[in-house]
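Why AGR2 protein? Reviewers of the renewal asked for a concrete example.
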Amino acid sequence: TMEKNYMSMFLLLVAISCALAKDVGKKETKETTAKPKLPQTLSRGWGDQLIWTQTYEEALFRSKHSNKPLMIIHHLDDCPHSQALKKVFAEHKDIQNLAEKFILLNLVYETTDKNLSPDGQYVPRILFIDPSLTVRADITGRYSNRLYAYEPSDVSLLYSNMQKALKLLKTEL
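Here is what the prediction returned.
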């Protein structure tokens, strides 16, 4: 009977430790799924090491006062085109490096400023605004019907447009 007691005690301990392990596991998954809601992830996956502004107003203010161009990315979480562009944007080392020279904002909602939807409210679309707070209508993608749209295959055009936005800044101001 001594052995039986030890055995049932041992099984009880195994059962308790399994239950505890399950709880710990649950806690971890809860925390990891809740993480993206924290405010420091303003990048929304577009470049976690970059500094992103929170609002359009803040972005305009920072652009004007730092004399850096503003790059605004309009996108939606449930849009496959936005997701695909985000992936290549975030993984493109040169774009990520160059992006540090910009004031950055990515928006999942439309602003009331009609200047940000000069040819419609489609996503994804990327607009450049210079520190004089002018939307650069001369920096566009390759589609005539959606001037500020970029596909993942347009990533090199986007990179050269970013360079163009920085060059224009130097020559005009």
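The helical segments are 2-34, 56-66, 80-91, 93-99, 155-172. This is the kind of structural detail the renewal will allow us to pursue systematically.
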